[in-house]
Structure prediction request, 231 residues.
Amino acid sequence: MLKVASALVVAAVALLLLAAPAHADAYRYWGYYQLKDGAWTFAQKGPAETTPADGSVEGWRFAVADESSTRTPRVVPTFDSLCGTTDKTDGNKLVGLVVDFGRPADGPDGTSAPPAPIGQCVSVPTAATGSDVMAAAGLTLRLDKSLTCAINGWPATGCGDPVKPVPAAAASPDASITLPAADATTQAASTNSDSDSGGIPTAAWVGIGVALVVGAVLVLLAMRRGNELKD
Prediction:
């Protein structure tokens, strides 16, 4: 009877072990995504093999994750929110782009503040790939063969490194973020910059105007003085 009971216990333990999910390895890496129907989906191909469609949105996220905890960009914009005010030129397409550099806990030392997230509209030729979109956006990539190791130097070292055990902060749930607004002051300054326009500076125009007015007044005074002397 004891032998039968022992056999049942062993069988039960074996079944529990078989049923228990295996702990997948976690890695610190850049994930590549596309926005579909208002949700991020993991890209089926790398950016060099992906040709985003006109009106699509590409996303990148740096994080510590495994197969059971995919970390997508923490903001879900719409194409219109990124490209609604951008005009499309002939032969080009517009692609929205989001780059989420992750949380301090996702970084190599778990504390350093990552760069601010990026959200922008990119105009590229219709045949441009996901890699071309990144290049057109002015983002630099550090690659190891086809693996994206860093974007704009983040992180400075490492490439898809395994993380074991995963720190509690890195395993904690994500919180939504907002994309930084464009610097209207800088944009206005750039738009209204006299030196950039290649024209005469505004201050110079003001000076010229004042000189003309003063000159005209002096001429009128001289003419009046001449008339008085004649009389």
